[in-house]
Design goal:
By secondary structure, the chain is an alpha+beta fold. It has 11 helices and 17 strands. The protein is globular, with a radius of gyration of 24 Å. The two termini are about 45 Å apart. It comes from Halovivax cerinus.
């Protein structure tokens, strides 16, 4: 963000020295440098075959030269893709906001006690390819929103994510189109659907994706605890903002939308309803059977689970990583009347209630006999009095008032920021405010035509969630057009005007969601938990 300050030196006399900050834009080239260095090592054979084993060594995900170049191409495109760029910049700003919100100390396993019991958001056996509460094996320690996130896939016994000999069509991946479940009771606060999905994996993602997370469901479970389930199949989302959901209820299907190299589920627990401005929270899962076919990162790092000593009266991972001991079990791995825990040696399954999972593990949801899970073949809406219901045309009737209004206003604000970024890009290439206004009008017209085409193709039955975002872009265009037509701000460049609109849209976005977080969602979750 300091690179943006460098442009101040171009417009403010006496501050020309700030132009040097533009060099910080070279930071965005670090993925290119890392990829090129890695490819160079492959070419000259400098890979260290004797390197220490890693937890992902047993997993084959086809991230070869072509896949890395495909990823690089996506990084370059994201810079000139306004919706993606808005999210990327907002994640950086959001990390600063998160640090301020937590007064300089972000939540961690040592300080955060989750209020809700969570299950894995999937059924069956899945593999953790990214994520751990241990910093060295974190999904992404920065930005803060993804600090404790997880990426899940399904692998076979050989660690492949698709059968040997098959191509990279998304349908060949084991996890593709598998049900994704609500990890706990809650209220849906945001749903993003309709993002495009490329038909192949292998490092490729859709060149015109509109969101880092792709098709996403965000659920509020308690004050300050939201789950985010991302990269879902377009059109598979079965919930809407305001819907009440139960633990284990299907909400969508695992896909390849958004910033995805191959089909997988991105899951995280966060303290804020927005992905960009949230702080990631460490999460313990109930009823998990886990095994580490390669390196057990907790044992290898000598990591002591801060909550092993009876988190909320449940079991935890021993400090030496050898297994799970329940409080007061005498150290023999068994707890009277609750759960049997096996002492692990790296490839022995560990079971128990409330445990962290780590990269490289194969994990399975194994509910106990008294676990509160939806009954097979019974619709949740039929089991829960007052739950959201479906109309004959498949639309969802929100059962919690106010949620939809917050979502719509948030998208208008995001659209305003997107429009501002387009104007900013125009200023970088030297376009005048008038030219940028015309270009923004053309882009808005194309977006509206696209949405209208979708509506016609869907026979008027499909939801068009992007219309609010387009309204925000229209608002940005109206501001720029008014300034240009009336010459209201003589001497103001398109870059400065675009930057101001981007910041205004971002501030409004934060304000709308703060209102939702403090007023609407808090009451909604309290009501939902009272009904359950």
């Amino acid at each position: 963000m300091l690179g943006v300050v460098g442009f101040v030196g171009d417009v403010v006399p006496g501050l020309e020295v700030l132009s040097l900050l533009k060099l910080l834009f070279l930071f965005w080239l670090w993925p290119l440098a890392a990829i090129l260095v890695g490819l160079g090592k492959d070419v000259v054979g400098l890979d260290d075959e004797s390197a220490a084993p890693e937890p992902r060594d047993w997993i084959e995900m086809e991230m070869g030269t072509v896949a890395q170049l495909a990823f690089l191409f996506g990084v370059v495109l994201s810079v000139v893709n306004p919706p993606m760029a808005r999210q990327d910049i907002s994640q950086l700003l959001g990390s600063v906001v998160a640090i301020a919100r937590h007064r300089g100390s972000l939540p961690g396993p040592e300080t955060f006690d989750q209020e809700v019991d969570y299950r894995l958001p999937v059924d069956g056996s899945w593999t953790v390819v990214n994520g751990s509460p241990i910093k060295e094996w974190s999904h992404s320690w920065f930005p803060a929103t993804q600090r404790y996130a997880y990426d899940f896939v399904i692998t076979d016994e050989e660690g492949r994510t698709r059968p040997a000999g098959t191509d990279e069509c998304v349908a060949n991946y084991y996890c593709y189109d598998e049900p994704v479940l609500a990890p706990a009771d809650g209220v849906v606060v945001t749903v993003r659907d309709g993002d495009p999905e490329l038909g192949r994996g292998g490092g490729y993602s859709h060149p015109f994706k509109r969101s880092v997370t792709g098709n996403t469901v965000t659920i509020s479970h308690a004050e300050g605890e939201y789950s985010c389930l991302a990269h879902l199949v377009p059109g598979s989302l079965s919930v809407a903002p305001g819907d009440r959901v139960e633990r284990g209820q299907p909400v969508g299907r695992c896909g390849h939308s958004g910033n995805s190299s191959e089909p997988h589920l991105h899951f995280q627990l966060q303290d804020h309803p927005t992905f960009e401005f949230a702080t990631g929270l460490p999460i313990r899962f109930d009823d998990v059977v886990s095994e580490s076919p390669s390196v057990d990162v907790a044992a290898d790092a000598g990591w002591d689970d801060p909550s092993a000593a009876g988190w909320r009266g449940e079991s935890g991972l021993n400090g030496d990583g050898s297994g799970l001991n329940a409080v007061g079990d005498g150290g023999d791995g068994e707890r009277d009347g609750d759960v049997t825990v096996s002492a692990g040696d790296g490839d022995t399954p560990e079971t128990g209630r409330s445990q962290y999972v780590h990269v490289g593990q194969r994990v399975t949801h194994a509910p106990t006999a008294d676990a509160d899970e939806p009954e097979e073949g019974v619709e949740v809406a039929d089991r829960q009095d007052g739950a959201a219901h479906r109309t004959d045309d498949g639309a969802s009737t929100p059962s919690v008032p106010g949620v939809g209004r917050v979502v719509a206003l948030g998208r208008v604000a995001a659209g305003l920021a997107i429009g501002g970024y387009v104007v900013l890009l125009g200023g970088i290439v030297g376009s005048s405010v008038s030219t940028v206004a015309l270009g923004l009008a053309a882009i808005t017209g194309l977006a509206l035509a696209y949405l209208l085409g979708r509506w016609v193709v869907d026979d008027g039955d499909g939801r068009v969630p992007s219309i609010s975002s387009v309204a925000g872009v229209v608002l940005a265009g109206a501001v720029v057009g008014t300034v240009a037509a009336g010459n209201l701000l003589p001497g103001t460049t398109a870059f400065v005007l675009g930057g101001a609109l981007f910041l205004l849209g971002t501030l409004l976005y934060v304000g709308v969601w703060e209102y939702g977080r403090r007023r609407v969602f808090r009451d909604a979750v309290s009501t939902a938990r009272g009904i359950a």
